[in-house]
Amino acid sequence: xxxxxxxxxxxxxxxxxxxxxxxxxxxxxxxxxxxxxxxxxxxxxxxxxxxxxxxxxxxxxxxxxxxxxxxxxxxxxxxxxxxxxxxxxxxxxxxxxxxxxxxxxxxxxxxxxxxxxxxxxxxxxxxxxxxxxxxxxxxxxxxxxxxxxxxxxxxxxxxxxxxxxxxxxxxxxxxxxxxxxxxxxxxxxxxxxxxxxxxxxxxxxxxxxxxxxxxxxxxxxxxxxxxxxxxxxxxxxxxxxxxxxxxxxxxxxxxxxxxxxxxxxxxxxxxxxxxxxxxxxxxxxxxxxxxxxxxxxxxxxxxx
Length: 304
Description:
Layout: E1 11-12, H1 18-28, H2 37-42, H3 44-47, E2 50-54, E3 57-63, E4 69-71, H4 81-93, E5 102-105, H5 107-114, E6 119-123, E7 129-133, H6 134-139, H7 146-158, E8 161-165, H8 168-184, H9 191-205, H10 207-210, E9 213-219, E10 222-233, E11 236-244, H11 251-263, E12 269-271, H12 279-286, E13 292-294, E14 297-301
Parallel strand pairs: 11-12
Antiparallel strand pairs: 1-2, 2-3, 3-4, 5-14, 6-14, 7-12, 7-13, 8-9, 9-10, 10-11
């Protein structure tokens, strides 16, 4: 019996799948924030992610907010034209999806398919990831980071705090902070916020098995901010979650700076994910002066 589901059979992502899925991702050395095991696992309930293996490629299916089925980019060696064409045709013919598509495709796949006359490749700006130099976010030195540095310095003047790497003893306190954040922001009235709450909860409860890196800030012995991420490729980490008590001014700037300084010193870059087309979030991400953006694309077959 195979150790993994074989296309067209798909299964939910479980912790027992970590080594198999991570092996595909590590060999591929992704640049897009979605392609880590922690990210796939934590968001699977919201996106209804399922996975399978077709020959040499990891294949994944998700659903959007409207319930429409789409494919994630197949992960594996080039050329991926045949497997991309196959999964798009399968989505249309077998799953009866109108305008079937591959979403969150990276530039590598876009370039592989871009010269083929039967594919449509469309950039999606709201999905582009923001990439920063770790040393910039750690030091906040230079004129362009003057405002951020002031926020951090003002916080330090007003608060005595400690930063600690995330461990099992801090998990309960992080969950309590997340629950309070959700109560304050009325998550129960917003499907997206409820999905985020469930994703964070599932990842924190599976901390030992997922093996991500994290950090927490304590003020007067109470966790007021936490964050976590993991290695995305050999030279880049990705931050999946960053939460702070919004009533404490400058705390988001501090948890960002402290995590980069204390936990990301082995890589040159950090991926802080996309802005989802939200103007406020886009402005916040641009205010940290990204080194560059990682493009993502939606891919369709022209004849479908």
